[in-house]
Design brief:
It is a multi-pass membrane protein. The chain is mainly alpha-helical. It is 84% helix and 0% strand. Helix 3 crosses helix 6, helix 6 packs antiparallel against helix 8 and helix 9 runs antiparallel to helix 10.
Length: 247
């Protein structure tokens, strides 16, 4: 708890200032106070937590799962062949230059308001950092270590499993910590652009009613969800990549 002390203090100060400014402005439809947002979350807890949050989390988990599989696969393939890397890498970069808000309506046109249009948007946002980070991790192994294993009779498969994968693990977890918040953002954006449920959809609907606190409520829930997910990844990283803490 001590290592989070500074963050807790900064958060308390930030929300305290926000509360004072919001009460001074006294325009809840523009800048609702944190207390009013929490009050609104409590009032709307049933639709928020029983209907819209599960819909957003489902999109987030499926999109992130597919992104991990796609990103890791592309990273491994690029690491195996320099020619393939030169062919694939520019395409991977180009996918990040297309504005999501411009292309997402096309997916809605193709797939309708189904879950797949939202999942594709989430994948487009999240697979890039996984691909790039894992690829860099696989390339981070020292040439001397590879040559040493070769002199001991190690095959390419042995080098990949015993050297490259352990070297890439910290990069993989770093990519996850980047991609998890992005997956939440991607799910919310896709719901904003076209959905029938989800926290993004709920926030957009409340905006049409000029209910500022209700607009902020899903954002607060999504932020806490992302924080929890990143915390879980940190715990897993500390348990799996123990050797990095011992170096």
């Amino acid at each position: 708890m001590r290592k989070y002390k500074s963050s807790i203090i900064v958060s308390i100060v930030f929300f305290g200032i926000w509360e004072v400014i919001a009460r001074y402005i006294n325009a809840m439809y523009i800048l609702p106070s944190p207390s009013k947002i929490l009050e609104k979350i409590w009032i709307l807890k049933e639709p928020l937590f029983l209907v819209h949050l599960p819909a957003t989390l489902l999109v987030t988990f499926i999109g992130l799962l597919v992104s991990v599989g796609l990103g890791v696969s592309l990273a491994v393939i690029m690491n195996l062949s320099e020619k393939i890397q030169k062919a694939i890498y520019p395409i991977v970069v180009v996918t990040q230059t297309v504005p999501i808000t411009a292309i997402a309506p096309i997916f809605v046109l193709w797939f309708g308001y189904t879950i797949w249009s939202k999942i594709i948007v989430t994948i487009l946002i999240t697979f890039f950092p996984i691909t790039v980070n894992v690829y860099d991790g696989l390339r981070s192994t020292r040439r001397e270590m590879e040559e040493l294993l070769i002199t001991y009779g190690a095959s390419k498969k042995d080098i990949f499993i015993k050297l490259k994968i352990p070297s890439a693990l910290p990069y993989f977890f770093s990519a996850l910590k980047i991609s998890v918040p992005l997956s939440v953002i991607g799910a919310a954006i896709s719901e904003w652009l076209g959905a029938q449920s989800g926290l993004g959809y709920f926030s957009k609907r409340m905006m049409t009613q000029l209910d500022g606190a209700a607009v902020f409520a899903p954002i607060v829930i999504l932020s806490f969800a992302a924080i929890i997910f990143v915390f879980i990844i940190n715990v897993l990283e500390n348990k799996i990549v123990k050797w990095r803490n011992e170096v």
